[in-house]
Amino acid sequence: xxxxxxxxxxxxxxxxxxxxxxxxxxxxxxxxxxxxxxxxxxxxxxxxxxxxxxxxxxxxxxxxxxxxxxxxxxxxxxxxxxxxxxxxxxxxxxxxxxxxxxxxxxxxxxxxxxxxxxxxxxxxxxxxxxxxxxxxxxxxxxxxxxxxxxxxxxxxxxxxxxxxxxxxxxxxxxxxxxxxxxxxxxxxxxxxxxxxxxxxxxxxxxxxxxxxxxxxxxxxxxxxxxxxxxxxxxxxxxxxxxxxxxxxxxxxxxxxxxxxxxxxxxxxxxxxxxxxxxxxxxxxxxxxxxxxxxxxxxxxxxxxxxxxxxxxxxxxxxxxxxxxxxxxxxxxxxxxxxx
Amino acid sequence: xxxxxxxxxxxxxxxxxxxxxxxxxxxxxxxxxxxxxxxxxxxxxxxxxxxxxxxxxxxxxxxxxxxxxxxxxxxxxxxxxxxxxxxxxxxxxxxxxxxxxxxxxxxxxxxxxxxxxxxxxxxxxxxxxxxxxxxxxxxxxxxxxxxxxxxxxxxxxxxxxxxxxxxxxxxxxxxxxxxxxxxxxxxxxxxxxxxxxxxxxxxxxxxxxxxxxxxxxxxxxxxxxxxxxxxxxxxxxxxxxxxxxxxxxxxxxxxxxxxxxxxxxxxxxxxxxxxxxxxxxxxxxxxxxxxxxxxxxxxxxxxxxxxxxxxxxxxxxxxxxxxxxxxxxxxxxxxxxxx
DNA sequence: TTGAAAGCGCTAACAC
DNA sequence: GTGTTAGCGCTTTCAA
Lengths: 339, 339
Hints:
Two copies of one chain form a homodimer.
Chain A: H1 5-12, H2 16-23, H3 31-44, H4 50-57, E1 61-68, H5 77-90, E2 95-102, H6 106-118, E3 123-126, H7 131-143, E4 148-151, E5 162-165, H8 168-181, E6 186-194, H9 203-217, E7 225-233, E8 251-253, H10 259-268, E9 275-279, H11 283-291, E10 296-299, H12 302-318, E11 326-328, E12 332-334
Helix pairs in contact in A: 1-2, 1-3, 2-3, 5-12, 6-7, 8-9, 10-11
The structure holds a DNA duplex.
């Protein structure tokens, strides 16, 4: 049997109002009553009825969603799917979402950021791409007591905020192992960075660090040899690729979701022997995985990151639960057979 | 603005009671009013307030959990963890669970099964091990309109029940691929069945089928050769293992969670060159995975199966949502680097 | 500092 | 067939 506020009031010989004040620390109660009520709560183990609470509270909750704009790049569509799934699920609990998308420049970012701060949301789901600007923004959020959950990448400089996403370094480390599964005696590994970002804190750079780190940790083990080279391409498709780049290469690592660009080129030019490891289950990537051009994809479940982000806010703000502040998504290895 | 029953009643110029009857199909309403109210609902998009609904309903929900007893075998502990996590989470929504564990004999099973049927639960989470007995039991459940969700293995003979779990065949197929990653030119594959089950429908047999199927589908591809043999051991530890069994063997597939038994033997006898693929992240298995004795574990997330099973019942019975009837867990490939 | 009570939206029992 | 209403447990306001 679960005890109610009414019962507590009876047992303590006070009114419901007094019990409520004590439970919510609203003050204006005598110490005597505080002690009396707390003793009863302790003895009987009061748990608030979440249905009655929210019904009486009768408030709608507004969360802001603040993500990079999906400009022709499928990647940023995926978390939105998860967010929309969560939106549907939590609508009945009074949750509504406002979406904000910033372009890949810091002016657009700042403009929208200040709009969000002004609008007095109950919570914020945020994917920080620009490191310095994000820190400024997060500090503002802190000032106005706006609960934040970050996805995709973390900003550790501002604490007290939650993060749901990948361990980028470890995922690169994992990629190192995967590359070995199809290795030969002599391996020339090419790392291709296809990006417009310049941030030195970017996720893909941490992945590359993890990748190298794997080989450092396993130096001298086994008999296979690995040599590495890197190239950087502007984010404009495969026009910049040419056959020369791939001479002598038998292994390629693409540290972000753009591996389909390289896969397309490899397929066209019949470079079938090359092992290719990339990230994220974009439609195009999956196509080349099933084709056998891409060998491994590491999945960080961006869809679920979006869903879990909203769920985090819901649990924290509406249910007032204690939720873990950091959640690293498991690193999924995706091959043709478990896709 | 979300419309309420009260508003609908006003708009339709009927009472709340009438609206309620129409929404819940309780009958005893004139067709005229049904049409009027439905038109309004359609226009304004009524969604019931789940807080008010459950507060008024004010019922506790009792689910039965019916699983094989964990007799020294860690595997059946794991879904219970997930179930307990769900229990904690849904307690505040009025969910309570009763646990029943049956021993590995059909008499124990039947006895407890009839107890559950008598007790009039609101829902049932069930792991069917005994095929024929389970069909009988499920038919009884159907008769008394008890909603059921199955985990771990599915009984397809009785429809209208939900299933959350693995695609056993596909997971064996996947194991086939994994075995190839560390293959040489000539491979002798040993499949070790460590079990006390005799059911011809058992999960592990479907896994073996999938495993062979992979090699059939890839016959003639590549240059590696595979030969297969099988042994069956009673479920009594590694005393039955001997070095002779492993002569010439370079690959082992264990189609259930007992791979640690073989791993222990391999380690003791320094059989380091053998590739070992198994199932499930039992503590012991993980230990040997990190040790490098086990190469791959396929994870079917039994913990999450338990959690999702309870969540399914909650969503279906308390929230009255439409929930998918079959959910196949993704097949996770676990190696040292993403454990 | 405290008590009383309205009301959140829905369910279900009862009266007509 | 239909309308009325108590009550679920909590929040919040107003009065004392």
